[in-house]
Amino acid sequence: MVLNEWGRIAHDEWINSANIRPEIELLEFIVMPNHIHGIIIKNGPSAPDMGVCDTPLQGPSDGANMSPRNAPCRGVSHTPNLRSPSDTIGAIIRGYKSSVSKRIGKPIWQRNYYEHIIRDGGDYEKIASYIAGNPQTWDADKLFQKQLGEFNKQFDIN
Questions:
Q1: Second label for 8, Cα 20 to 30 Å away, from 19, 30, 42, 80?
Q2: What is the pLDDT of residue 70?
Q3: Phi, psi (5° rounding) for residue 61?
């Protein structure tokens, strides 16, 4: 994947998440044309966890594949009473989406996101492999197929 301007902003702000939040460690991630996947390890007083996130975009970004230790996503704590509201995965993702939208100059994200707690090494390997292979499955993405069909119709390509 080759990132366009929006994709580079999404990429840079994902990386910046770890710079402004020392309690997270970013692992695999990828910015796709209409969404982002990533793995985050969340350390600190609210118990370390590892999680995966997928958050969809509403606009174009192109995509880029990132490898371990360069990637962002979110983890979820099992001890919600020990963390502040700004220390939650939801707050981390909200802050990320907000910073990307501000730099782009308009909101581009769908309202929610998906998260999954990674429970063991096998789960991690499966998810990391899925993230790494996501660009190879882009042509099967429903949004891509719809956009391709509209493009072909617009330019009368069969």
A1: 42
A2: 36
A3: -145, -15
Q: How far apart are the first and last CA of the chain?
A: 25
Q: Which pLDDT tens digit goes with each residue over 65-113? A: 333 333 334 343 333 334 455 678 889 999 999 999 999 999 989 888 8
The whole-number average pLDDT for the span 23-36 is 91
155, amino acid identity: F
Joined tokens for residue 43: 């350390």
Distance CA 119, CA 124 (A): 8
Sheet with 35-42, edge to edge strand ranges: 64-66, 24-31, 35-42, 49-56, 114-117
**Residue 115 CB: number of other CB atoms within 10 A?**
18
Write the CA distances from 149 to 83, 139, 144, 153, integer angstroms: 47, 12, 8, 6
Question: If you ran DSSP here, which 8-state letter would residue 139 be given?
Answer: G
pTM of the model: 0.68
